[in-house]
Design a protein that fits this description.
2 helices, 4% helix
């Protein structure tokens, strides 16, 4: 009888808590449905032998939702504790690439779209990388997962002095877009109206994507292959993670940051970033200037020696289709001006050596990402990313990213835009030029791009984005689109000859928030 009474009392207490959570806690639910389309203007036939590919065309529908629950009672001061959970699911009603034929063998190549909308290649990114005719055990099309739980984390903050996150959450790391699987902690011992000192540590053991044109299951960004290991065997990999330590000192409009990124047994990458902002609280009235310079100095391990091939596992690897080497330098300069509702930006990005081999190939410097977010009408006036444009607009057959992070490549870009009530516009131009390496060998590709972007907010919850782009890519001798092995400068059959490929396209994106 006593046990029954105890059970009844406990049940009533639990029921009371569940039925009346608003009295002590609060929660917020948000989400959106997006319709995204990309129409490629190059409809050439696939020829994997010669590295000839079209630009993909497809339409998708993505639903994203998230709930955040504050775990401390309302009115709690100084402390904040919350948990968030969310995910995304996608459908592809139209995919022009699904039945494309490979002219090199006459077989169906299969969907390239399912490589990034539902992309799944195993945790170590070593599975299901083949075309449709490779069969169910190797083709990405047979293993697509158009859903992902991209948000599942606990967050704690104390006064803006100390805090941490742990789980899966939206990354705010300079070299990562998407969601991080890991943890981060910050400590801010000093903060006044004009000065601030902040220390930050983050660790990543996976990256996932949940955007309107990317649904990607989490994968290890920098897996390490054991000595003598087989890349196709997941048991031969170890994920030591990749990590970062940053120290930021802020004084009025100046931010000075030193950072140190590292992946055990793979690379160490110290660097610094300076940002000067004349008007941090700019609200589209008056003048604002924001200047940034950033450098990264990656130092690579050699890896283990393979006597059969006379190569080292890391030093002689070929990220981005170029030899890794032992070191490199990345220089990133960006200047943005605002006058009321108008803005102009100019930027330079230069890789010396294969300096973005791991940071770039697996995570990419954060850009504006307007092609797959576009959920705010003010996107053309905000340049929060390290790079002031969206560089994810190459053909999917060549990895989607443009040439900016290729080895020994100089990129210049500029843009002008404005916002007028519910309408925003943006004109952008870019030139990427491949330089020669220490051996006199020219880099992978020269690219040219000119685009027009427009956005219109029908209401606060319904937005439309449009983009049309000219994009030309000249693939240099020794390289191929879709091929990321060692360059073949001496190829007698001409399959690695220089060629020009059109990557022009049109994009639309309709967003409904709820």
């Amino acid at each position: 009888m006593r046990q029954e009474k105890y059970f009844l009392t406990s049940s009533l207490s639990l029921l009371s808590f569940l039925l009346c959570p608003a009295e002590a806690f609060d929660y917020r639910f948000s989400g959106r449905v997006e319709n995204f389309s990309k129409i490629g203007f190059n409809n050439s036939q696939i020829n994997t032998k010669k590295g000839i590919y079209p630009t993909e065309s497809f339409i998708d529908i993505v639903t994203l939702a998230q709930v955040k629950v504050n775990l401390l009672p309302k009115g709690t001061e100084n402390h904040r504790l919350s948990v968030s959970l969310g995910g995304a699911i996608a459908a592809i009603p139209y995919d022009k690439t699904k039945y494309d034929i490979n002219q090199a063998n006459g077989k169906i190549f299969g969907s390239i779209v399912e490589n990034f909308i539902g992309g799944y290649h195993g945790y170590f990114f070593n599975k299901y990388l083949g075309p449709a005719y490779a069969g169910t055990s190797q083709s990405a099309s047979y293993h697509a997962r158009p859903y992902v739980v991209d948000t599942a984390f606990l967050r704690y903050d104390y006064k803006d002095v100390f805090g941490f996150k742990a789980g899966r959450y939206e990354a705010n790391i300079d070299f990562m877009s998407g969601s991080n699987q890991g943890w981060e902690v910050y400590y801010q011992p000093y903060k006044t109206e004009t000065q601030r000192l902040r220390f930050w540590w983050w660790s990543s053991f996976g990256r996932g994507l949940a955007f309107n044109s990317w649904i990607y299951e989490f994968f290890a960004t920098v897996p390490y292959l054991k000595k003598g290991g087989n890349p196709s065997n997941s048991n031969d990999f170890i994920n030591y993670g990749w990590h970062g330590i940053t120290t930021t000192y802020s004084y009025k409009g100046l931010d000075a940051q030193f950072f140190y990124y590292f992946a055990p047994k793979t690379y160490n990458a110290p660097g610094f970033k300076l940002v000067y902002d004349t008007n941090r609280n700019f609200e589209n009235v008056g003048f604002r200037s924001q200047s940034m310079i950033m450098t990264t100095f990656p130092l690579y391990y050699r890896g283990w020696y393979n006597p059969e091939t006379n190569t080292y596992s890391l030093e002689d690897s070929t990220p981005h289709g170029s030899l890794l080497g032992r070191n490199g330098v990345t220089l990133n300069i960006r200047q943005v001006f605002w006058w009321d509702n108008f803005n102009w930006s100019i930027g330079f990005y230069n890789t010396f050596g294969n300096s973005d081999a791991f940071l770039g190939s697996h995570t990419m410097p954060r850009g504006n990402n307007t092609s797959y977010i576009g959920s705010e009408i003010s996107i053309t006036t905000r340049h929060a990313g390290m790079i002031g444009y969206d560089f994810w607009d190459n053909t999917a057959y060549d990895g989607l990213a443009d040439a900016i992070t290729n080895a020994n490549t100089f990129t210049f870009y500029t843009s002008v835009g404005g916002i007028h009530k519910r309408f925003a516009w943006h004109v952008f131009g870019r030139v990427s030029h491949a330089n020669k390496n220490a051996l006199g060998q020219v880099g992978r590709a020269n690219e040219y791009s000119l685009q027009f972007n427009a956005s219109y907010a029908f209401t606060e919850s319904v937005l439309l984005n449009f983009r049309i782009t000219y994009y030309g890519a000249r693939i240099n001798k020794g390289y191929q689109a879709g091929y990321f092995g060692a360059p073949k400068f001496n190829n007698p059959d001409g399959d690695f000859s220089a060629n020009y490929q059109d990557r022009s396209y049109m994009m639309t994106n309709l967003t409904l928030k709820f």
